[in-house]
Amino acid sequence: xxxxxxxxxxxxxxxxxxxxxxxxxxxxxxxxxxxxxxxxxxxxxxxxxxxxxxxxxxxxxxxxxxxxxxxxxxxxxxxxxxxxxxxxxxxxxxxxxxxxxxxxxxxxxxxxxxxxxxxxxxxxxxxxxxxxxxxxxxxxxxxxxxxxxxxxxxxxxxxxxxxxxxxxxxxxxxxxxxxxxxxxxxxxxxxxxxxxxxxxxxxxxxxxxxxxxxxxxxxxxxxxxxxxxxxxxxxxxxxxx
Length: 241
Fold this sequence. Notes:
- The protein is an alpha/beta fold.
- It has helices spanning 13-23, 38-46, 48-54, 65-73, 84-94, 111-121, 141-153, 167-175, 190-194, 203-207, 211-218, 220-240; strands at residues 2-3, 6-7, 31-36, 59-62, 102-106, 128-132, 158-162, 183-186.
- The strands form 2 sheets. The chain has a 6-stranded parallel β-sheet with strand order 4-3-8-7-5-6, with helices on both faces. The chain has a two-stranded antiparallel ribbon with strand order 1-2.
- The relative contact order is 0.17.
């Protein structure tokens, strides 16, 4: 279902994980998956190049309730929120007894390695084959090729990228040119949430579509400019449409 300029997945996390498990036993096609909320949708609205990258993805999961509400209004009655951290957790749990290998890429130094321990101790998945913390600057093609070669050597099925939008989607798109994996999934703040570095909004706040406000209260200096633009623009663009 198209919400503004972005095609969003119109079902649920269990439905998507079911197809993901099947695809992990098939030919590796570097399928790109993004958990996309209002931030990504508004960025795509303003940036044509980013919009083309996002719509080239195999799936854009509706990460926020506003995208779900608009999708349902347009006829996607079965659309449910596919929250990045939940999608990550449920996939890690669902694959713990399969020969499906994961690679974590993102976060500050040490975060990805810490997340690996969380997945082992909390989710019972010991198939985390590697981790990498990318530099804050943009990586060159040669650096991405070297990273991809490392990932390929580990026989990875799913690469998880935990950065911010639009950096993570662009990073995943560039990396996919050199990898030989089944999926590359971008899940935003999932790494920080599951390692406890950032506090997650209560479920009732998420259901009301107010997680942005909760996160703003938690990290005002970093997020106030983002949400000052995103929230009014999301409402306005959808009203005009």
